[in-house]
Automatic annotation (TrEMBL), chain A:
NCBIfam families: RodA_shape. It comes from the Bacteria. It comes from Dyadobacter arcticus. It holds the Pfam family FTSW_RODA_SPOVE. This is Cell wall polymerase.
UniProtKB/TrEMBL annotation, chain B:
InterPro entries: Beta-lactam/transpept, Beta-lactam/transpept-like, PBP_dimer, PBP_dimer_sf, PCN-bd_Tpept, Penicillin-binding_protein_2. It comes from Dyadobacter arcticus. It holds the Pfam family PBP_dimer. The chain crosses the membrane at residues 7-26. Keywords: Carboxypeptidase, Cell inner membrane, Cell membrane, Cell shape, Cell wall biogenesis/degradation, Hydrolase, Membrane, Peptidoglycan synthesis, Protease, Transmembrane, Transmembrane helix. Residues 252-575 form the Penicillin-binding protein transpeptidase domain. Residues 621-636 have a biased composition (Low complexity). This is Penicillin-binding protein 2.
Amino acid sequence: MAENKPITKNVDWVVVLIYIACLGIGWVNIFAAVYNPEVHTSMFDLSNNAGKQLMWIGTAALLVVCILVIDYKFYETFSFIIYAIIILLLIMVLFAGSNINGSRSWIKIGAFSLQPAEFSKLAVSLAISKYLSDPAISLSRKLKDYYPILGIIALPAFLILLSNETGSMLVFASFAIVLYREGMPGFIPAIGMVMAALLIITLLFVKWYIAAAIIVIAGLVIWLMPVMTRRRGGLWATIIVAFVMIGIVFGVDFFMNNVLQKHQRGRIMVLLDPDSDPRGIGWNVIQSKIAIGSGGFLGKGFLQGTQTKFDFVPEQSTDFIFCTVGEEHGFAGTAVVVILFISLISRLVILAERQRSRFARVYGYCVAGIIFFHFMVNVGMTIGLMPVIGIPLPFFSYGGSSLWSFSILLFIFLKIDAQRPFTLSRG
Amino acid sequence: MLENRRFVIIGFIALVGLMYLLRLFYLQVLDESYSIESSSNSIKRVIEIPFRGQIYDRTGKLIVYNTPVYDLLVTPYKARVDDTLRFCQVLGIERHDFDSLMAAASAYSRVKPSLFLRQLSKEDFASIQDVMVDYSGFEFAKSSLRTYTAPTLANTLGYVSEITKSQLEKQEETYYRQSDYIGQSGVEKIYENELRGKRGTKFVMQNVAGVYKGPWKNGELDTMAVAGENLYSGIDLEVQQYADSLMVNKVGSVVAIEPKTGRIIAIVSAPTYDPNILASRYFSKNFAALARNPYKPLFNRPVMASYRPGSTFKLIQALIGLQEGVITPGSGFTHANCPMHCHNHPATGTVALGVMHSCNPYFYNVFRRIIYKNNIKNTFRASAVGLDNWHDRISKFGIGQRLGIDLPSEYKGNLPNKKYYDRFYGEYRWKFSNIYSLSIGEGELLITPLKMANVAAIIANRGYFYTPHVIHGIGDKKSVNPDYLIRHDTGVESHNFDPVIEGMVGAVEGGTARRSRVEGITIAGKTGTSQNKRGDDSSIFIAFAPVDDPKIAIAVFVEYAGAGGSAAAPIANLVVEKFLARKITNKALEERMLKADFMSKVILPGVKKPATADSTKKKPVTPAKPVVNKPVAINN
Ligand SMILES: [Zn+2]
């Protein structure tokens, strides 16, 4: 049986230090984002986001201590129960939730609001890990083993969609990473990426050119193909794949031009070309690029930003917090943040790989995948490489729900990891 | 094997990280366009608001256009006013106005521009402009005011005002910002998307003092403002204003439609007000006064007020009876065995005579036949079936439903069916004897003046109508809303209209409306009296002319004016003559109608004694001193 005493000795300090660094940098930047040069603003004033965030950080620390104290087996044992509770909360919020910014997904506790959708990532991670901890399940051979996973993801995804939080729903795509690690054939994520690439290309170029390019490439592939492969069906496979791709191109084109309304089409186009609508959604992208771009190499200095003040950048302390980093601390600052995230995620992958139980490994990958997806989409959005999807930057963005959920998510894994020396291999 | 996938995964993560670093390096270090020399410079977005579209009448005369005006904005933390006295003098405001305006602006935001004074005229602007250079923190923004050529059509055109907080929150696409203008009622509201045009956006650089430093990125991202689309209406401004003048000191409506197209020629909601008073700096004050007025000038009576159609409804009863085959043009009925009263008139041996003399028992019998169809074995069941059949036929005349005119808040009225009476009496617990008052347009029927004008158009067209509409052309191409090109058939055959029209001509020539006939024009019309429990009945008249080639169909409603022949018929016939002949022959009648005052008969809720005519007349409020509008921030 595991002994819980040397928890501080076994917990992975690299991750903890990166976590603390992120919280610190994040908080300073939230303060900079809400700072008003005309009015004296205090960092500790509970009426502004910086003061509130400090409170959230304090409570998150308490949560972390609780997580580290609770027996590590608790999480595996109660995985499905935690999942069920979160699902119940998601259903409840649909009927009894408070409406904030057009999305009915908040539970109000006094002056503070919590969003159950943020915690659904944790629930799904635990449930998937628990399910995959059964060694008989194989993602590389049996199709039917996927069904429960799809169910685990689809149920909260549907509920979140009902409460109008599309951003939180898209985060479930991050589970592709863990499924890939656990044996999902590589061609599935590959097809996903090819589809996404085709979609974007179709929106940017004339469809006939794309069709011609696909035919040329298919011709080259067939020509370069070893004769044996060609005879064993490679020829027809290539031709079919090429036709399917052309079909997708024309399908997307038809859908865009004939099914979607004009304004819906505009909303999609602006993701690819923000200049096409400089006063609508494109405005956010242009402004965040200006803010980041105007930072230069070293930035304008702490509290010296101008673009992130005066509401040039919307939602500066939440989804667009990265802009403040970029403007006030320049490339030096943004590079530090990017490197912090890449180090954290890589470290999590390494930790996950050294787990002896499959539950722990899968869960570790879930955590790494979720943080990676948030990082990729949020930062990508501010620098114009990703569509504008409102999801927070983990540990940086203002907001109690997201800080709590990421802290819980991360420290459950650290707790399980800390117990590794005492657990026996099971999978 | 699967362990090795970690390398793919870490590789992918590192690749994304590297891509982002390169992109950031490019944005922040290599691309010069974002890093303006001085770190304190900023890029500002300037919104250019286009002119709203103009509205024309059927002869090409302008009804609504725009006058450029200037708003004065203040950014409190930049504002420096050393000699407040002179400043106030220049702007023509009082010291305490200045203080409260500054306080309100500071309360909104110290760093964002707030509205200080709105809608200064071109002349005011010219005189102030030079002086204002001495005061920092103030800037002008160009804007425009809706201006109306004639003081008419107030409720039809509607008004434009600052967007409300709830409208801001409810908008689907985020288009409007605080302090933006939006069409709030009438045509301005319905055609808001066409009229508003497309805002332009300019990105400019300015230094820390807010001084313009040139376009950003050479204006590559700037978009030009595009003026709103012009609207073309079927309104005849001359006829409209003539109808307005006839409706002075009266409460009611005039609606005239071109039957062949459904275009509205004139639409009066009386009492009315000058639309210019809601397009001025004094909007809030004037609007409050209109809202308080007990005669409800903001209530758009032609589409929102409901009345019982009274005898005008007999026309429809006759048409349904003929179409159902329960009567023939030669059917006659006497006053015998009828619970309804009538007046003294010659025998009504044909449909035409029944219509001409507006005989109540005649239509009691027609309606009875429509309901029972000679099947009186089970009167309860026969009534249920008969009424629903009748309801479906009448619905085709647009009664009991919204016609779909391009004006907001159209009231659908009421056309009872079986379900309706079941709720009162229970299923199969009522029969013809409970509902016969419907036969003469009383009972539970409710219609709007617009619907009755449409009925006149249907009869003029002998069986069909086009949805009445104010605007028939949008933009330079004068494109038409396709809904207004759909011909709606009523299912009553053309030949069945002959006896009814014959009766309507008779009513004007020698029947209930004979006193207002027009020399040289054959008008077909029908009077009606809508019972009013509170006071004198409402006078109703519907008509169309000329009979052989109808060019105008009209409905006139005058509240508290008594029988249809007394006020509604003369007003309708004068308007018809004005439209068709452009002159008035019966000057005495015109004089009498211009002077007639039925407003003093109006009994207001809560008021015992009828108010005098003087206090009821519209009075645009013109305050002596400039009204200080509450500052509103502009998001730049
Ligand atoms: Zn009679």
